[in-house]
Amino acid sequence: MSEQELDRYWKTVVNTIQDGIMIVSTRGAVVSVNRAFEKMTGYNQDELLGRECGILECNGCKGQNYSADEPWCDLFRFGELNTRKCTIRARDGRIIHVVQNASLLKDSSGSVIGAVGTLTDISDLIEKDIQIEAFRQELRSRDGFHGIIGVSPAMRQLFDMIENAAFSDAPVIVYGESGVGKELVAQAIHEIGERRNGPFVKVNCASLTDSLLESELFGHVRGAYTGAIRDRVGRFETASGGDIFLDEIGDLPLITQIKLLRVLEEKSVERVGTNVPIPVDVRIISATNWDLPKLVELGKFRKDFFFRINVIPIHLPPLRDRMEDIPLLAETFFQKIRLKSDKNIKGISKQAMDALMYYDWPGNVRELKSAFEYAFVACHDELILPGHLPPAIYREKGPDRPEPRRTSFNMREIEKQELIEALKKTGSNQSKAADLLGVSRVTIYNRMKRYGINATRHVETS
Q: Is CATH 3.40.1490.10 correct for 167-317?
């Protein structure tokens, strides 16, 4: 194969590469570019040949103030550039985010005769990162509370109750149907409370067999039972200094309830296989979808244990009792799933939102999220339509159903204005304002802190 043929084939290979390739002289004059480079920048080769590469306004080259005796570019100063992120400006003025790799070119005697660089366009990835970060900031500023989304009166009361419970060290129990978000409530209590710097340990009491549950909670010593080949630290020891979340506590066997009652009273545990007490400093947060008083009546749950864990009960409302939160929850799930998918779905149609508002949601918030995961698989249009929703949800719509409830107001702003008016009427007396609004003084304090309200300033300027 002749040198001319090799040269021709080499040009074919270079023009097949998807990354932009540029060759420059030792003074930065463009010697050659491939087709991918032309497509990326909008310049054709004839426009670039002989011109300085500074025409691209690469921000990685800015600020280099070397003397006349020193190289004009980092590449010629250090010999190579590896995976440097920078931006260049296209012919039409667009900013393109790229990853740059470059190396020096030398002749047979080792003298530098130029350099070759590859540019990989990562603008789509950068745009995706920007969208994700913007959405994260949007979610943080929305009507939510430590990951719990809601603006309804029921949720506002829940947020106040969580804040009040968080600053107590007494046991908390969260009641609610499956799928309402009981674990999120427990997590919020931990994040707000004084134990937030300690561990948050989660245990699903329904997922473990009776024989494994005690070992999981309290640990065991080597030889305690067949298969116990080494000592094991239990969840209570791991959670010491923090909170332990016992989910599905209504499924605990009676014998384990007795041992947990002893832990609560004596603040110590005994590993399976030994009677040596180990002190633990743990606050218990539990959750259940059972009617525990009913289980107590049936003899399936110990009354003394119930009274010890039921000190601060928190009731999480089902989704059907806070239908005004559905549009906000729907938009939240839509945006999250859209960021993960490659589909260009722009929104939720009015008809689909009506279908969501008609449905009773027996599976609660978890079912709503699953409905959007289903819709993103079924939808091939720009908008999610009723037919893209799971069949059970779409079938719920009927001619005899009342119009869905809608909200077009900001509940947080209403709550803020109510608080300001109450403080104004009571002369900034927080106790009287609490009585006027029918909440606790601690709730008034928490709301003032949440909305940045200075009682004296707001009352005097009103």
A: no
